[in-house]
Specification:
190 residues, 2 domains, 6-stranded antiparallel sheet, 3 helices, 29% helix, Acyl-coenzyme A thioesterase THEM4, cell projection, EC 3.1.2.2, HotDog_dom_sf
Length: 190
């Protein structure tokens, strides 16, 4: 399911609303911005076919018909992940806004694990091999993953044994490893 321009536009406006809800402390400004977003939503809903996007989210997910909370352009809770294949690894560069915060100034650990699972899953499912699914994912948090700073999430297959694919990955910020992960993906039985 490729996101229509209308669906993606609506998801982007919803993300903007979510960001406003968690970042705006003045009710008058919150109300003003909420009304502004509501006007944009109403205009788009009045003529969905007329909605265009200058920069539509690329549909590069390893999940067909992606509606996941990890990378879908249709899902407003999904982090803005654009996963690419880079040599021998999957890679995603992104900056997470405030709505992904856990402890003050830090990305919630569950969101970090979600991103790693998705990027490693992309690496596990590159090429023509049968689909593989997460069996386990071990995450080691070495340092805080900051909100509002550029992050790089990478994942790679380190070995394969029959239906088993062993992966490693990390989250870096300004070149410093913040989080490491290793996991096992297993091909579905035929």
């Amino acid at each position: 399911m490729t996101a229509s321009h209308f669906a993606e536009h609506t998801a982007r406006l919803t993300r903007e609303l979510i960001h406003t809800l968690v970042s705006e402390t003045d009710d008058a400004r919150l109300a003003e911005h909420t009304a502004f977003i509501a006007e944009k939503l109403a205009a788009a809903a009045a003529d969905p076919a007329a909605v265009t996007l200058d920069d539509p989210h690329p549909q590069r997910s390893h999940i067909e018909h992606d509606i996941t909370p990890a990378s879908s352009a249709r899902n407003p809770i999904a982090p803005p992940m654009d996963i690419r294949w880079d040599g021998e690894e999957s890679r995603c560069s992104l900056t997470l806004p405030l709505q992904y915060q856990g402890p003050p100034g830090r990305v919630h650990g569950g969101v970090v694990a979600l991103m790693l699972d998705h990027v490693l899953g992309n690496a596990a499912n590159s090429g023509d091999a049968p689909r593989a699914y997460t069996r386990y994912l071990n995450v080691q948090y070495d340092a805080a993953t900051p909100v509002g700073e550029p992050l790089v999430v990478t994942g790679r297959v380190v070995r394969q044994e029959g239906r088993k694919r062993f992966l490693e990955g990390e989250v870096t910020c300004h070149g410093e490893v913040r989080v490491r992960a290793e996991g096992l993906w297993i091909e579905a039985k035929q």
